[in-house]
Amino acid sequence: MYDIDRDCRMILKTLAKRDNLSCCDIALLLSIDELNVADKLFYLFSNDFIETDSNIKPGEPIGLKTPFSISVKGRACLEYIFKDSWRFRIPVIISIIAIIISIISLRLSI
Q: Taking the chain, what is the end-to-end CA distance rounded to the nearest angstrom?
């Protein structure tokens, strides 16, 4: 549903924790090159995952000191990624397999 890479997810998570961060701030917090962060911010801003209080329209060039915050669509994207994560499906799958094995071993022991 949402087509974003790992760096964009990290930027969204950072903006979810702290509002009004600029490109330079995000680059410092995540230890990523500022130009790479600027490209990712441009992509996120153009697709309405983040927003700014400045008079910049999506698709226009952004400055390195322009403050950004996460939008409603960005929060929905993070929630979708969180729910869709395999990290939360694997324990359920392991539990189901363990129950099946225990039922089979119980049937074989009788």
A: 49
pLDDT tens across 11-64, in order? 999 999 988 899 999 999 999 888 889 889 988 988 889 988 877 776 677 788
Nearest C-alpha neighbor of 8 from the set 63, 61, 58, 68: 68
Query: What is the SS3 string spanning the chain?
Result: CCCCCHHHHHHHHHHHHCCCECHHHHHHHHCCCHHHHHHHHHHHHHCCCEECCCCCCCCCCCCCCCCEEECHHHHHHHHHHHHHCHHHHHHHHHHHHHHHHHHHHHHHHC
CB-side exposure of 49: number of CA atoms within 13 Å?
Answer: 25
Q: How far is CA 95 from CA 56, 82, 83, 89, in A?
A: 50, 20, 18, 10
Looking at every residue in the chain, the average pLDDT score rounds to 86
- Residue 81: other Cβ atoms inside 10 A: 15
Query: Which residue in the block uniquely carries the two structure tokens 């969180």?
Result: 82
